[in-house]
User: Fold this.
Amino acid sequence: MRSALLALLLVVVGVIMTLLLHQQIHEANLQAYSLKRGSIRANKSYRADEQLAMDTNPSEMTTSSSCVPQKKFVFIKTHKTGGCTAINIFQRFAIYHKLKVLMPVGQGALGGPSPPREEDYVHTPDEKYDALMHHLGYNKTWLLTKFPPETPYISILREPYSHLKSQMNYFRLPNFLGIRSSNPIKTFLKDPWKYRNKSEAFFVHANLSWDGTRNPMAFDMGWPAEKADYEEEAHTYISKLDTEFTLVMILEHLDESVVMLRRLMCWEVKDVILYSRIENQRHYSYKSYVATPKERENHRRWSAVDYMLYETFNKSLWRKIDAQGPDFYEELRYFRTIRENISRHCARTMKECKNETLDIAASKWSPQFVVDHTYCSYITAWKVYELDVVMRGREYTREELGHSLLNQKTNLRLMKKGLPTFVNRRDFDAAGIRVPHKAPLRRPESLEDIIHKTLKASMFLA
Assistant:
């Protein structure tokens, strides 16, 4: 009996000793693992700080071999949202990768809220295209006839109040609304509903209504102007858009949007660099006006669908960013530094007409690349049509310029004078309002400038 108890005691002691030994080993492993993780964190921080001065192993690059660059896309270019800045990325990508772009026959927009007419865009033999980037109201049904269902859809939006001020200035809406005050924004926002019968313009040539003050961004994204008060239905529509668009960039967070674009499209950093030019040079008296809380509230109620649209996609952008992890912000810092370096180099190169190159070393997010004179000429292009000419491979002919669509700005001026509105320049000419043809130039006047001068000379405009 005593010997049995002694044996049992020895077994218990052995088990306890074994457990203690395992505990010591486990704690030692945890300590070693913790030290290892601390070392990794330290190394990551070091790499983030020193990234610009160090080469990175290609196997560590974010754009890995498993990431396939997207060679098809649709960019819905909305009005007065930074679209003319963002389109430079898509134009350059199309040029460098020789994409088949669905382009307008004439200069400027591809279409309005309705799909373009057959004679107003350049056709391919199979009616299939790689990219679209010119102004066109979002119409998924028509776009599916030109692009595969898996094509990424991209757009850009802007904070609605800031957008309203830009719209007011660019489209000369105070004149159209009959507002004569020194601060038309303040006057308008005191009671937007007062101008409802004036702000909603009906374009007979297109059989549609457009309101430059009420939900204009939603209009570009396919929401009818006459449904401004259908907020519940609009909410459903915007939720659907959120599932259809790969990315909607936000002008107020353009750098973050561009880095996210690069990641989602699996493009290289050189593909998404934007030139750091001087801020928008359009100055007007109410550009910096800060609305009162009451004026802001009036605008939010007046343009409720635009606010709903903007807030939905602003949240969507930050959800995507949060899902990327802290590495996203390392790339954001890298992107900003590289953009400034390239912008300074290209500003000097273009000003002094030099053919110098700038070597950009490989990094965690990009292979090595060279910034040459051609690259600089592309990213510094001031007008959209400059790179359109490069994509086309030639200048516009007179006949092609006749297909250039008249935008809302020009048609609003015609409406203000009691004149009919027109689809394009050819129809405008046919109506007897003559626009002098000019020989194609590298930097021709825009169509709207030519028409404005002609109308003014004909005493149609004050």
The CA atoms of residues 357 and 372 lie 5 Å apart. The radius of gyration is 29 Å. DSSP finds 20 helices and eight strands in the chain.
